[in-house]
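Re: your question from the hallway

Yes, I did run it. Sequences:
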Amino acid sequence: MAEYKIQLPVFEGPLDLLLYLIKREEVDIYEVNLTRIATQFIEYLEEMKKADLDVAGEFMVMAATLVWIKSKELLPVDRRSLEDLEEESTVDPRWELIQRLVEYKKFKEVSGELQRWEVEQEDVFPHQIGKQNFPIQEELKLNVSLMDLLRALNSVLGRMEERGMPKEIEGERWTVREKITFLKDTLRKYGRMMFSDLFKSAATRLEVVVTFLALLELARLHEVQLEQAETFGEINILDVSATSNNHC
Amino acid sequence: MEMELKSIIESLLFSSSRPLSVEDIRQVIQGVGDQSEDISLKVFQNVKSEKIEQELRLLQDEYEELNRTWRLTCVAQEWLFVCLQEYAPWIRFFTGERARPPRLTPPALETLAIIAYRQPITRSEIEDIRGVSVDGVMGTLLERKLVCQQGKADLPGRPTLFGTTTEFLQYFGLSSLDDLPDVSELRRYPMNPLQTVGEEVERRTVGKESRLEAVEPAIRQPEIFLNEDDNFENLNNTHE
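Structure:
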């Protein structure tokens, strides 16, 4: 008997057990012989008791319902009172139970579907995109010397040469003051910018020079911080208000 | 270059770090149109949500046909690119396990299925269908935010009504409740819909705060009733 105890399947509830019994009979729910099922159901409860399993109250209620249905079916039709027959046509306990079973079965099937999706979702990886900001390398901070700045300026001016000078001569459109404002605004917005980007939009040598003067002025006033990650590397311009320590 | 609406949508989805709703996309396109002087950027300025939805479906089909390793998909009314499951072993090795809670137990899944189809539903109605008490299981489902309270039923004792959440759709990768199988067969009229409207709205507002950057209410459960009962037209409008 001891081995048999372990083999008792666990059911979620009385409906679950009923479905199992019906399935074992290999008949359609609508065709099932509830009298037979009732006997099997009660037998199972007995097994549960023998196996020292707690029989939940819900199983007992179902057992009672089944016994009631069974007793009604055993009674010959001609012995039933008219009232009984009328009552039956409105609430047939057998029909009611079968409807509940059919409904429960559907939800059980759907929950199987949910389970499949649950497992499936573990394998669904979404497209991921990282934040593409400037990498901040705190430990590689080197202060920038005036020589570094001049070298950088020369390379920018060199590039201007390559691009060729504009054919038209334009009037003086840039002032150091304007460029200081532009630099401050840009830095406030982005926190930092690269030295080479500073001159991307510059159209003439004069504009480059004016922008450079503006940068020097801001550096002198300790309003920007200049950093170089490596020798001859790109010079980064940082907003001082965004950093704690003042280099330059 | 003549821009296609579909391509604009695709570029947004591709560069986005989070799933986008139709409304997210609509706001971007309108924003660009409002801001710009360039007439070519204003072409789609007043594009309708339905049109965006339609383009998204076209894009979705295109990816299907392209036979790439990723697809465009819609989860809880938000669109995103996902990789095909076949490649999960490699992606998992590379990016690590997707952070997910432990799998649900069969009773929890059964209860969840009943709530999903019959919402809003009371605890005792769930128990009627399952034939057993659902106290413990409901605790788990509420804790995991797969279900939530959706007001009170107009019944003696005013029992609490429960329904599924956006997290439910996300957890199972569903676009909406319409994705559930045999929907028409298993759904029913809610017991007393209008009774719960006020609390519904309140609940959603609260829910929205917890969802980062949510632009539109993602749960649109009232939609499911559209064909069944005209009253729900009103209910739906409350949320738009």
